[in-house]
Amino acid sequence: MQALLDFLPVIAFAVTYWVTKDFNTAILVIMAAVGIQVIVTFALTRTVPKMLLISAALVIVLGGISLLLKNDLVFKWKPTVLNWAFALVFLGSQFIGAKPIIQRIMEAVAKNEIQLIPAHWRTLNLMWAVFFTISGAANIYVAYNFEEAVWVNFKLFGLLGFTLVFMVLQAIWISKRVPEDQALISGAQANEDSDSDESKP
User: Fold this and answer.
1) 48 vs 123, which has greater pLDDT?
2) Whole-Å CA distances, 33 to 103, 160, 198
3) How confident is the model at residue 197 (pLDDT cuts 50, 70, 90)?
4) Angle made by CA atoms 39, 136, 42, in degrees to the nearest 5
5) Measured between alpha carbons, how far is 83 from 131 in angstroms, rounded to an integer?
6) Is the pLDDT of residue 58 over 70?
7) pTM (2 decimals)?
8) CA 13, CA 156: separation in Å to the nearest integer?
9) How many other CB atoms are there within 10 angstroms of residue 187's CB atom?
10) Would you tell me the crossing angle of helices 118-145 and 101-109 to the nearest 10 degrees?
11) What is the Cα–Cα distance from 69 to 118, expressed in whole angstroms?
12) Nearest one of 84, 128, 136 to 102, comparing CA atoms
């Protein structure tokens, strides 16, 4: 349900543009859509994820500025700003905190079913930082070098397709490492338990 809600504003934006061929109208629609999305999400879950709040705020702020200045490039920067912000957060978590952010996210979502050694968690986290960096760069390249209609299609299909491909590759990468990593982690835990038992009087 939440995944559908997350995608609806982008669909509404693209459909509005395809029907009206008016970028400003499409911006107004997506601004309204993200506002409704936040309200519905709160009504259903009594909470609003920080990622959703940040994304909605960027849509409303950059959309508003774009309409006021009559400059569609301002709004087109939104995916780049968001992706590069995520890249910085993920990269920063490589050095700040006990665990990289991808480990915290996946442990919460998968209920600790995915076990990797620390080096592999850091590698996976860095992969996400690179993914966000490339996504942001690709978006702004298309925005500046192609027609408006091409960017709208890229926003809906290009970025989504790139994300799906990356997630499939990530799943394959994880699946190849989990069995060995779980064995290493289980062995280390067994050794700790053995040492603990031996230290007892």
Assistant:
1) 123
2) 31, 19, 62
3) very low
4) 10
5) 9
6) yes
7) 0.85
8) 9
9) 10
10) 100
11) 48
12) 128
